Structure formats: structure tokens, C-alpha cells
Known about the structure:
By secondary structure, the chain is α/β, with parallel strands linked by helices.
Amino acid sequence: xxxWDTMESKIGTLTLVCDEEAILGLEFQVMEPxxxxxxxxPLIEQAALQIEEYMEGKxxxxxxxxxxxxxxxxxxxxxALLTIPYGEVRSYKDIAVAIGNxxxxxxxxxxxxxxxxxxxIPCHRVIGANGSLVGYGGGLPIKTKLLQLEDSKxxx
Length: 156
């Protein structure tokens, strides 16, 4: 069974999706997943608390069970994203190299765009090779806010 609920954050309303065991999704809008029941489960409550702590600068690492669904390649990319430390960024090429496929920069970008658990799987920490902010599912203003939250000394 899937469950969902929303939370308000500094970057707007977020929708959290889970089952009995893991977080399955985090969206930047109110979105009712097909076949899911709206219920504030203990796991959704825990995720909402950790996201709130993150937004307040009190949490640099999430401690939640995650189960994103995707292709083998997407899973490799998302696993690599989880290794990017708080306050740091990597380029699409860096991620491609990290997964052993240095020519897959565009495919890494597509996998990054399909990340179903934004923020917690930190796709916002991936930038262009020249240091520019490029595409983000939640929009560049949200990506900018998240990066500034993590490194207030840097301007984007």
C-alpha cells in the first residue's frame, strides 16, 4: 500500500510518498499518486521532520529508508548523488565518471531529472561543467535556494 501527504516548507508545498517500509517520492507540488491513500504515516512524519531540520540548517544528512524506482542506470546515478556531501556540488561529468561511464553526461542529466526523491537524493547538487546552474525539476529558483542553504558563502 502507498501513502502520501503534504508538508509546507521554505520552498513551498512538498508531497511525500511512502509505503510501509521506505520513502518512494518527494515532489515539489501537491500531487496525489495513483492508488495511494492520503495518510500522515510515521515514516512521512519522520521525513517531514528531517526536511524541516534540513531547511533550518540543522540537518546535513538524511536518515531515511529510500526506495526510488528506476532503471539500473538511473539507480546508479541516484546512488552516486547520495555520495555528494552537503554543501558541495558535482558536474554531470563527475557523476558519469563516478558511475564508470564518462561519456554518459547527457544520460546522467536525464536520470537526474527523473529523480523521484528530490532533496533527499540531492540532485540539486549537480551543476554544469562550467559551474552554471542548469535544469532542475523544481525549477532553478528552488535549486538556487537549496544550494544557498547549504553554502551561504557562495553566490549562484
